[in-house]
Amino acid sequence: MTKIALLDYGMGNLHSASKALSAVGAEVSITNDPKIIRAADKIVFPGVGAMRDCMAQMREQGIDKVVQEAVFNKPVMAICVGMQALFTESLEFEHTQCLDIVSGQVKKFEPNWTDEQGAAIKIPHMGWNTISGMERSHSLWRGIDEHAHFYFVHSYYCAPEDTSVTAAVCDYGQPFCASIIKDNLFATQFHPEKSHKDGLQLLKNFVEWQI
């Protein structure tokens, strides 16, 4: 059974993520203990809330160093604010320095963006939306249909400098990066643990992902 360390730094949706990962066959430890994290087969890095608070909590508990170490030696999945924390900086609160594992910025949705009917988008982007542009041959997308629906809750989006790391896009006024894959790092802006069948399939694919 794959051992997953679900990182606990006070800012993640741990219960839902733990339950979903367990449902697809993982042995889950909710932890901030570096020894347990290093012993795990894979890491899931969740996050909710304001980026400045998340980064402060990460640094206080040493989770920032654990993640920076782990991305070089085992599969890591980051979710929502966890994905945003991987980038160089967030423009939330004007400027928040992040982990700089993926070059790029986290930007706020522009209120002048409009939907297909010409109405201004609502911020935050909350609820179900489709993703597209996945590389169908990649094992992480096995069993996920093009234009599958996932659950989003966010006011900021990731803009990688190297667009080749973009693994899926979502349209909310304009297309934005909804997922990245970079070597053994996988991240989603949406919440697979809240996305029913497709979300569970995606988590299952991560649990079974062979690097």
Automatic annotation (TrEMBL):
PANTHER family with a match to the protein in the record: IMIDAZOLE GLYCEROL PHOSPHATE SYNTHASE SUBUNIT HISH
GO terms for biological process, alphabetical: L-histidine biosynthetic process
UniProt entry keywords in alphabetical sequence: Amino-acid biosynthesis, Cytoplasm, Glutamine amidotransferase, Glycosyltransferase, Histidine biosynthesis, Hydrolase, Lyase, Transferase
UniProt EC number: 4.3.2.10, 3.5.1.2
Domain (Glutamine amidotransferase): residue spans on this chain: 6-207
Protein name per Swiss-Prot or TrEMBL: Imidazole glycerol phosphate synthase subunit HisH
Pathway(s) per entry: Amino-acid biosynthesis; L-histidine biosynthesis; L-histidine from 5-phospho-alpha-D-ribose 1-diphosphate: step 5/9
Single GO MF descriptor: glutaminase activity
Compartments where found: Cytoplasm
Gene assigned in the entry: hisH1
Domain of life of the source: Bacteria
Annotated organism of origin: Psychrobacter phenylpyruvicus
